[in-house]
Design a protein that fits this description.
EC 3.6.5.4; 8 strands; GTP-binding; nucleotide-binding; GTPase activity; ribonucleoprotein; binds guanosine-5'-diphosphate; alpha/beta
């Protein structure tokens, strides 16, 4: 599957036009910047990010005196590549593990974002990186959520800590706390806490996530978001950052994202790194997010 089809195609066309030109005048550069701007806007990239992006590429293009350059189109492509990497967050940002295990990773986000699936994916990924993860079912909002995490845990071959059935509704803060004690006793070194999501941002959801966070003191609070919702992803991320505080973003469903607006906006607007990307329903369709690799894929 191709990510960001539209953007990739548009930029390819822009660069093709440049290559046939040879030398580039200032007017050529202006025209190119207009086309790049339209391409980014059509990809649903945040307007402020688009402006900044275009201004940065243009400044470098003018500075490089492309009318005298030997390979002007190659240079423009390089500037675009550099700037894409920059808005995508620069360097990949690895998990910060706690000095004293267990490292707690809390997952927050809306219902359907892909948190439960991500818990399994992250569990497998951690195990492959020589950790011993424990998944924690602290989503007690939906009747089936605990069960779903248990199924994902089984598929992933990662243990799940869940409240005992028949104990009434249960308190997610209490479950999360007991999970940490359990992890310490049983020597799990990473605890992944799955929290409840709602269809929209609401006060109760935020408070619950904030309470869980205060109780378990996570090393990483990851905001999990469906990249296909575009700019709504950015707005929701802001709400979670204000309400709960997030350290990084996980983009899910990148496999179905034909535009790329969320991916290309969220790190810059939020000022927080995209740490992981999820790109499929299979539990191994997952990896750390590498801004440089993503930029290369966009530029084809
Ligand atoms: P939660 O409500 O946040 O826990 O979301 P789930 O983990 O239950 O995921 C919601 C739906 O999205 C499920 O049908 C998942 O199979 C699907 N899903 C999750 N991640 C991805 C992904 O990266 N790509 C695709 N195509 N589907 C995904």
């Amino acid at each position: 599957t191709q990510v960001f089809d539209t953007l990739q195609d548009r930029l390819a066309t822009v660069f093709k036009g440049l290559r046939s030109k040879g030398r580039l005048t200032e007017a050529d550069i202006d025209a190119t910047m207009r086309e790049i701007r339209i391409a980014l806007l059509e990809a649903d990239v945040n307007l402020a990010v688009v402006k900044e992006f275009v201004a940065a590429v243009k400044a470098r293009a003018l500075d490089a005196e492309l009318s005298k350059a030997l390979n002007p189109s190659q240079q423009v492509i390089k500037f675009v590549n550099d700037e894409l990497i920059s808005i995508l967050g620069g360097e990949a940002r690895p998990i910060r593990f706690a000095k004293r295990p267990p490292t707690v990773i809390m997952l927050a986000g809306l219902q359907g974002a892909g948190k439960t699936t991500l818990a399994g994916k992250l569990g497998i990924w951690l195990r492959e990186n020589r950790h011993t993860p424990l998944l924690v079912a602290a989503d007690l909002q939906r009747p089936n959520a605990v069960n779903q995490l248990q199924i994902v845990g089984e598929r992933a071959g990662v243990h799940v800590f869940a409240p005992e059935p028949g104990n009434g509704v249960g308190d997610p803060v209490d479950v999360a706390r007991r999970a940490i004690v359990h992890a310490e006793a049983k020597l799990y070194d990473v605890v992944i806490v799955d929290t409840a999501g709602r269809l929209g941002v609401d006060q109760e959801l935020m408070q619950q996530a904030a309470d869980i966070k205060a109780a378990v003191n996570p090393s990483e609070t990851l905001f999990v978001v469906d990249s296909m919702i575009g700019q709504d992803a950015v707005n929701t991320a802001k709400a979670f950052d204000e309400g709960v505080g997030v350290d990084g973003v996980v983009l899910t469903k990148l496999d179905g994202d034909a535009r790329g607006g969320a991916a290309l906006s969220i790190a810059r607007v939020l000022g927080k790194p995209i740490m992981f990307a999820s790109n499929g329903e299979g539990l191994t369709d997952f990896d750390m997010f590498h801004p440089d690799r993503m930029a290369s894929r966009i530029l084809g």
